[in-house]
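User: Some background: our group keeps a shared notebook of sequences we're curious about, and every so often someone picks one and asks for a predicted structure to add to the entry. Today it's my turn. The entry only has the sequence so far, pasted here. Could you supply the structure so I can complete it?
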Amino acid sequence: MKKNELKTLWTFFSQINQTPRPSKLEQKMIEFLINFATERHLEYTSDSAGNLIITKAASNKETNSNPIALQAHMDMVCEKNIDSMHNFTTDPIITYTDGDWIKAVGTTLGADDGIGIAMILSILDSNDLDLPRLECLFTVDEETGLTGAKALQSDFLTSQSLINLDSEDDGEIFIGSAGGVDTIATFDINQSTLPSNYFGFSITLKGLKGGHSGDDIHRPLGNAIIILSQFLSSVNQETDLRIHQINGGNLRNAIPREASANIAIPIEFKEKLRVMLNLFIAELETMTSIQEPTMHWELESNFEIKTAIDSHISQGILTALSTCPNGVIKMSDHISELVETSTNIASIRTIENKIVIVSSQRSSIQESLSQISKTISNQFRNIGATVSHSDGYPGWEINLESPLLKLAMQSHQKLFQTPAKVKAIHAGLECGLFKEKFPDLDVISIGPTMRGVHSPDERLSIQSTEKTYYWLIDILQSFQKLNDI
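Assistant: Of course. Here's the predicted structure to add to the notebook entry:
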């Protein structure tokens, strides 16, 4: 591979990072892609959802090559540290290099899936590669519901083969993914005046690692909402704790890193509250089930708290959260180290006269997905919540006989003298929806190594990216030789 091709790849990644692209607000990214296509005289088409296809003819105009689709999503997860002033709708992502890693300053990097876009644009930009006809599909709103993929019409894509570039481990080929659904529990609340002998506190838990609620759910990570609720629930067992408001988490597909609450307790209990918190922290530090070395608590007096929600509601919410199934429910019986079913309490918000809790369930088995969703729903309905569900998304069934899988494995062995690993993922990839809409589509997913995805710790391996780009090009060139007709 020529060095200028790698330079082009990183140039496009830099330009993508200059382009704001929150989920559901991808217009600037769409304009960037259209300008790219127009400047290179490439055909493009879009649909009503904002999905975009850029096509490029086969390098050899003499042949009638079968097309192949490359696919990445335009949007990115917009997470930042609590002290960051970054505005994701207007500000560029500020990046820096740390050894082999590219990182962002205080925010998510957006390599998920900005690097996938960059790879596709670099390939489209090149005139030196012997490639088949390309259909390059860029979808919107992958991160908050896969709505772009859901909106695809059955005539939008003509390729019978598709390479998704949204995986996060170098040298691995993904051929299956979990389906998922969100459960939304809404509590109607009333604020009443606190008795005069109650004292207000603000309590905050922050500094947790966070992570992707699919890819990272099996790791020893703490869920800030669950941990805070467990502490508050223990206090409530000792005295009449009242909640003014409680908030935590931001995104349905992220493990919450931070949570906070404004509470009130009888004034005679105020000193014991600090003692209980210190004991609780000490117990957490000795637990082997989570590894959160930068976990940090703040407990401050808050004289502004004059009202609180009804005691029975706050007690019910704390009990439900602190005892709710969360994390891995079952591991796969068929693929080593693959999570089969999980759930994640993703966010809690106090909004005027309501408290809204969002939980995300995932499973590669539809029956198991339905069962864990029912369990979560009953947990909250039993304490008076109104419960609804998102539309959900289908899983992607494993196909070990995939011709594209065989081609990718042969390419990896040839290039790197090691076999690629074949895996499934416990996360919602758009591939499940592509297969639902295009049943005969042959699909694989690859990508470079990333870590800390969906958190401000997100980072991208430079060496792995260049290796994966090299691999992708060889797959395409092998596909061209195999499918010339």
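Suggested note for the entry: The first strand starts at residue 43 and ends at 46. The chain has a mean pLDDT of 93.
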